[in-house]
Amino acid sequence: MTTRLEYRQAIGAQLKEFYVTGTLDAGSTSTQMVDADRTEPRETWAGATMRLQTATPEERLVRGGSPTQGFVWLDRALAAGAPATGVAYEILKGWTLTDFNDAINWACQRAYPMVFEPLDDKTTVVAVANTLEYTLTATWREINEVYEEEQGSSPTRWRKMGLGLEYDLMPSGVGFIFRLTGVDPVAGLYFRFVGRKILSITALDAATSSLPLELVTAGALAYLFKKGINPDQTALSAGFDKKAKDALVLFEEAKRIFRTARRPRRAITPLLATISDGSEIEGGW
User: Is the entire prediction scored with pTM above 0.85?
Assistant: First the structure.
């Protein structure tokens, strides 16, 4: 499993002039970060965003740095005061951390339908009395089968429902709406959904996904290069269109390499019978 922070770091490793990560040395204050590795020229990170991985991560704009002292100055004090020695940080310019996170989300979504997570959910949708419609989770992209919990069964047994007879699935702006048509809801009973869903990742830096690092990195780079960087740094964006196309090619190749195996489906051969009433037989003995 890969965390959101690890995805960002892998993306940043491909954008060396725009991104750097490290850990703080002793002596930092609420406005002055100390890391002996920060030896870049004074204005290198001016206007960039610095994110510190403290207990409650904080972000600040960078005013500048001191290559001889390993200092990075922030535009305003950290709410939590001076960070401890060893706190990890990221510095990013050109794009924002929101751009990086949006790029990761884009790559996760566009990996579908070639790369997906099998769906077999038994706990999300529970019947409510007199309620026929239920909004399904947005990441559920394909529903193949729906089951209804059998009342009073132990262990729990599931009865397969008929599409068009007992329920319908209607697309909405954020996924599907599950609508009961031929059965009355029994409050407290669960519905089971089988199909496919997007391999998504939540917003926390520590959130994880099983999507391969190479796939997400390539897709995120395609997104970022296509989006471009902040207007005040357009001189750095020369050749971004080509880089976006190159990254997209790598993303499509990664999807083919890591594509999810589909569940085999049983082939059903209908029974055929030939009935003759003798009308086609001519002649006799």
Answer: no
